[in-house]
Amino acid sequence: MDYETIIPEAFGASLRGMGLHILVRDVALQVAFLSDVFEMEAFQPTEDFAILRYGDQVMQLHVDATYHSNPLLGLVPESAPRGGGAELRLYDTDPDACAARAETFGAHVLQPPTDKPHGLRETYILCENGYAWVASRPL
């Protein structure tokens, strides 16, 4: 699929399985974070929206204003971190490299790369919106 030229109606109709939409204050900043730290590829980024691909997975970013008539917007805090309790896990991703890139980017590394008893080495990185991104790979 050509995410660079696909029109919204065709993109929406193509989505299957489970989807991930993230509400953010600043799409460009979130795209930069995800591209720089996790090497995601962004398509059609605008002030309001972006498609991102991580391996074979696709996610979408939406700025708050695009959800003007969505019931979820009333639950999103204005200034506090938004992602409390949610972990956005990126498996098969080098936690050491991501933590180093996160520090260069200026993101907050909540937990440095650590070997865990459940068989993964992982790092927790907070983005500007307060979402916890977890890069991990098997030990």
SSE layout and pairings?
Elements: H1 8-14, E1 21-24, H2 27-38, E2 41-43, E3 49-54, E4 57-63, E5 87-90, H3 95-105, E6 108-115, E7 120-126, E8 132-138
Parallel strand pairs: 1-4, 5-8
Antiparallel strand pairs: 2-3, 3-4, 6-7, 7-8
Helix pairs in contact: 2-3
Structure description:
The chain has 139 residues and is an alpha/beta fold. The protein has a single domain, classed as 2,3-Dihydroxybiphenyl 1,2-Dioxygenase, domain 1 (Roll). Helix content is 22%, strand content 33%. The protein has helices at 8-14, 27-38, 95-105; strands spanning 21-24, 41-43, 49-54, 57-63, 87-90, 108-115, 120-126, 132-138. It has a four-stranded mixed β-sheet, covered by helices on one side. Helix 2 (27-38) crosses helix 3. The mean pLDDT is 90.
Structural class: alpha/beta
Characterize the main sheet: 4 strands, mixed
**The CATH H-level homologous superfamily:** 2,3-Dihydroxybiphenyl 1,2-Dioxygenase, domain 1
Tell me the fraction of residues in β-strands, as a range: 25-35%
Order of helices and strands: HEHEEEEHEEE
CATH architecture designation? Roll
**First-residue to last-residue Cα separation:** 34 Å
Q: At the first level of CATH, what is the class?
A: Alpha Beta
Radius of gyration: 15 Å
Percentage of residues assigned to helices: 10-25%
